[in-house]
Amino acid sequence: MDGSVLARHTGHVVSAANLLDWYDRHKRDLPWRQGVADPWQVLLTETLLQQTTVAAVLPHYARFLARFPTAEAMAAVAEEEVLRLWAGLGYYARARRLHAAARAIAASGFPADLEGLRALPGVGTYTAAAVGAIGLGLPVVPVDGNVERVMARVARIEATLPGARRAIEAAVTTVGRQQAARERAGDFAQALFDLGATVCTPASPGCLACPWRDGCGGRDIAERLPVRAPKKRRARWFGVHFLLEDAAGNVLLRRRPREGLLGGMMELPGTPWRPAVWEPEEALSAAPAKAAWRMLGTVRHGFTHAELEVTVLRAGVARIRAPGELVPARDLAQAGLPSLMLKCVRLAGLARP
Ligand code: SF4
């Protein structure tokens, strides 16, 4: 399929071969691009990268790959072990689903097509396409935020997202059908990622250095594309958590329910999180012990749809009888606490990095 198809669809022509030439010279040097792409390692990398940035994943990548070089290696450990390693990366449901996917792969082998990939736990359209293209060489183009932005500009799509997504996907599909893109599907996908991350950036696209500058239809209005609907204000939630210590220097932790935010992660015992502020007596009914609770401070934490404000109370007792796990205060940094809970215990000077 040649550029005339893209021209018919978008009114503009860009060449997959040009983009690949540029990629061969300018690709980012990322640790997961060493050697031949292994499908499991691509799945692991893409799962780590969901909802976060390359910079946030880099410090964790080598640790994960060393611990779980194969799906079988992850399938062999308990879910808690994966969650412990995932601590600090957020969106913990990803870790649980990746563990379930590893078990499915260990049982039935790695899927060979998109349908099989999509049937794995936690693998949606984007991840299936990314693993399909990069790990298996299937001629598909994964559409992430970078690709969306590049193609909205190239094809000059001025409709508002998310409604514009179909037109963007049609433009992506059209350019992805070019022979060069099909022959090097994994490189083409990564070339689009890199173009969006390093040249066609959100605020100040470097059009002069862009391999697609001649065929790009949206250069003159690039900063305005893609057009997004105004963001809704995030809801505000409130919670109270209790840092309870015993005379031996242990802190009481418990595991959150599997479903919901931070599902399955360790936490300080506390109230549910809700849109209304907790009155003191009401909050104390959720305390793990009757004790002289004193206020340590508050921490804020942003989730995708809500901003959470947590009040942290602290108390000491001779012996802790409430259900949960007793962890020596000096070991809290290694207890697999999510970032929110690390912020809470750090109010007490514990688990310092
Ligand atoms: S020419 Fe500019 S707007 Fe068009 S794809 Fe390249 S960097 Fe983006």
Describe the structure.
It is a single chain. With 353 residues, the protein is α/β, with parallel strands linked by helices. The chain has 2 domains: 3-228, Orthogonal Bundle (Endonuclease III, domain 1), CATH 1.10.340.30; 235-346, Nucleoside Triphosphate Pyrophosphohydrolase (Alpha-Beta Complex). The protein is 41% helix and 13% strand. The protein is elongated and about 75 Å long. Mean pLDDT is 92; it is low at 1-5. The structure holds iron/sulfur cluster. The site of iron/sulfur cluster (SF4) has 15 residues, from helix 10.
Give me a quick take on this structure.
By secondary structure, this protein is of the alpha/beta class. 41% of the residues lie in helices and 13% in strands. The strands form 3 sheets. A 3-stranded mixed β-sheet has the order 3-7-6, with helices on one face.
Q: What does the radius of gyration come to?
A: 24 Å
| Named CATH architecture of the largest domain | Orthogonal Bundle
Q: Identify every distinct bound molecule in the structure, by name, code or SMILES.
A: iron/sulfur cluster
In the CATH hierarchy, what is the superfamily of the largest domain? Hypothetical protein, domain 2
By CATH reckoning, the class of the largest domain would read Mainly Alpha
How many helices in DSSP terms?
A: 15
DSSP summary, beta strand count: 8
What is the CATH topology assignment of the largest domain? Endonuclease III, domain 1
Strand order of the largest sheet: 3-7-6
Q: What does the overall shape look like?
A: elongated
Tally of separate domains: 2
Distance between the termini: 54 Å
